[in-house]
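Quick one: structure tokens for this chain, please?
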Amino acid sequence: MPALIIAKAILGRAWGWLSHASLWQIVSICLCVFICVQHFQLVSARHSAAKWEGLAVNYRRQLDAETEKNKAAEKQTAQISKQLRDRTDEENRRIAGDADALRLRGPGKAVCPALPSSPGGHQQAAPSSDAPVAQLPNTRGAELIALPFDDTIGFGKSYDELLNENKAWRDWHDQVLKVWPKTTEAPAH
């Protein structure tokens, strides 16, 4: 209640002074109040703009840093992929050379030197198909083996190629996991 009485007294005196003031004095007072309000709004807007600009610059720096990290990771990934591709191509060429060395004259055929005859002039009896390895004849210090048919060789070749490709992909994956950055914290907003 006392605040109301005080406010009423102040407003009464202001009204009394304004009623005796000229039009130019009232316009000048209103203009001064308007200029003060505009000044403080402009200061507040500049402060807010500077704050937002600082945040934008900070975010731009963070974005540029992340972009550089991504470019470096992409470059490392490309290098790793090239190394793996080169190594895999080299290994595939080696495997293809070995497979070509195994494939001799026609599908599934292998060249085996003729078994030498025994010193007595008669032919040695052929060992049974289930004979142990020690009973197979030994020619020129190398064990003779029978190569499987062409489809079995093809299966073995495709298995070796798939195994090597699988190994190359696993190596690539392991190397990418080592290079790729691990993020454990959520990005700040």
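Residues 3 and 175 are 77 Å apart (CA to CA).
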